[in-house]
Amino acid sequence: MYKKLILKCLLVFGLLASGIVGCSGHSPERVLADIEIRSTELDWNVISTQPSRVKFQTLLTGSVTVLMGGMLNLDDPKTGHIKDEEISVDVYAHWIRHPIKGDFLIDTGLNKQFLTHPQGSLKGLIASFIIKDSTQHPNQDILSQITRYGITPRGVFLTHAHSDHSAGIIDLPKDIPYYLGKNGSLHNYPFIMYTHHFEGIKKLLELDFDHASNMANLGKVIDIWGDASLFAISSPGHTKGHVSYLVHADEGWILLTGDASHTRWGFENGVIPGWSEDRDLAAKSLHKLMAFSDQNPNVRVIFGHQM
User: Fold this and answer.
1) DSSP structure class, residue 151
2) How many structural domains is the chain composed of?
3) 307 lies in some domain
4) Residue ranges making up the domain that contains 158
């Protein structure tokens, strides 16, 4: 209880400070993504039978140690047997290779700072409360992996901007498009918690779901390239503007929940993340992803921090 109160006070201080001295982290200009959006009803039965177009691979970039209370909402009665103890969770970047569009990443994983520093590139007074520790093997960082696999990123789609999903940006080209859900926060609070992940990026391209298509169970979705190979799914709650993704890979369909659900247990039991900006929205987003998964057991689900 006291920890939560202290954190709230610190965040309020950070917000006040941001109005006085500006963000400690760089905030790029926000513009709407130049993606054709059709306000239509999409038929999953038709879409799901189309041939696949992309190759897909998940890259493990290290792990971070956090509190279980961040991964799962421990106020949920279903978690009565679970303790708020430290847990190590994997951190991913997902690589998509489109035959025409080229290489894209969904989230960027960890940069090489996590090899030598417990909090990596996350800074501020509460950084060590959010990330207790980290583990990364040599050459496991995102830059080492894209070099090893011959990946030339043409763009990055972020589920959201939390440090464990955006840290790899530091080592990626700055002249490629970076996509984020509309009004998604960069979570930079001066002195309290901030990063420099977006330094050098002039514009963030926002995915606007206001007039997006609808798909059964999933609700608002955007067909990113217009060929049903990659869908962005509006899934706010963990953060404002959070985005999940549905990939039609050559191995089959894959649902990337992002941090709409950190873990398999949370997903299967309908328990939202403890770290949720809006718990009601988080529950709605989680339940629609669960409903889609229940009706489509052939779709592989990869959770925010667990395969």
Assistant:
1) -
2) 1
3) no
4) 2-302
24 pLDDT band, cuts 50/70/90, is low
% of the chain exceeding 90 in pLDDT: 86
CA angle 231, 233, 237 (to 5 degrees): 160
Q: What does each C-alpha distance from 63 to 60, 213, 258 come to in angstroms?
A: 8, 35, 15
User: Alpha-carbon distance 153 to 224, whole Å?
Assistant: 16
pLDDT tens per residue across span 108-117: 999 999 999 9
Residue 133: exposure state from Cβ atoms within 10 A (0-12, 13-18, ≥19): middle
Q: Taking the model in full, what pTM does it have?
A: 0.92
The first and second tokens of residue 3, run together, are 């920890």
- What are the residues facing 96 on neighbouring strands? 56, 104
Determine contact, residues 89/121, Cβ cutoff 8 Å: no
Phi-psi region of 120 (alpha: psi -120 to 50; beta: other; left: phi over 0): left
DSSP assignment of 212-265, as one string?
A: -EEETTTEEEEESSSSSSEEEEE--SSSTT-EEEEEEETTEEEEE-GGG-SSHH
Q: Give domain status of residue 146, yes or no.
A: yes
Is there a domain that residue 210 lies in?
yes
Residue showing tokens 């509190």: 67
Three-state secondary-structure class, residue 267: helix
User: What's the CA gap between 182 and 252, in Å, rounded?
Assistant: 29
Question: Looking at residue 277, which CATH number applies to its domain?
Answer: 3.60.15.10
Which residues does 302 contact at the CB level (< 8 Å), separation at least 6?
A: 58, 92, 94, 254, 255, 256, 257
Mean pLDDT of the chain: 92
Give the closest residue to 157 by CA, choosing from 89, 101, 228, 205.
Answer: 205
Is it the case that residue 19 has pLDDT exceeding 70?
Answer: no
Q: Is residue 62 part of a domain?
A: yes
**pLDDT single digits (tens) 80-124:** 999 999 999 999 999 999 999 999 999 999 999 999 999 999 999
